[in-house]
Request: fold
Amino acid sequence: MEIVSYSEARKHGLMYYFTGKSCVNGHIAKRRSCCGNCIECVVAYKNRHPEKNRIRVQKWRDENPERARRTAREGQKKYCKTTKGQLRKFCRRASTRLSYGKSYKSQRSLLDYTPEQFEDHLIRNTEFSSIAEAMMSNYHLDHIVPISYISDIIKDEDLQFRVAMDLKNLRLIPAKVNFEKKNKINTSEIQIIISYLFNKYNINV
Ligand SMILES: [Zn+2]
Reply:
């Protein structure tokens, strides 16, 4: 990390400065230009006093509603672009289409993969380095076996969700192709996925 003195940071309106020297607690970390507190000490304090921190944050939000809204929006935007955020977004989309009302936590517990495996699976064999990048290029997440078909055939709600969101049932395709596909299930590719999924989840039709 580059050395930036307190006075330089103040002069240029930077949020942090860095001396390269350790704080009283032995951290060598950035310090906040407003108060001189070491950021590792601040994090440690917040973790030691979660309730106090919650109250402090709420007080700040009440006093700065406009900034709080903006910060929340920006945080949301950043989160949406992360791997975790993408998985959450697609779980929400699938659950809306299935009218599946369980919390995101319960939804996640039904999936047999991590957000990282989700991303690896989707971008494998593509030119993209992340799902967010594919989205920017107008790619869509496609359920190979359409959600409408899944909800017609399967009655159990948890099972509907698991089948819809099974990695084998997910791929990225250009938006245009997705619109042309509609809800067709009569291709051999889709039939193969249907047999795979029905076998995996012991579904008898
Ligand atoms: Zn410290």
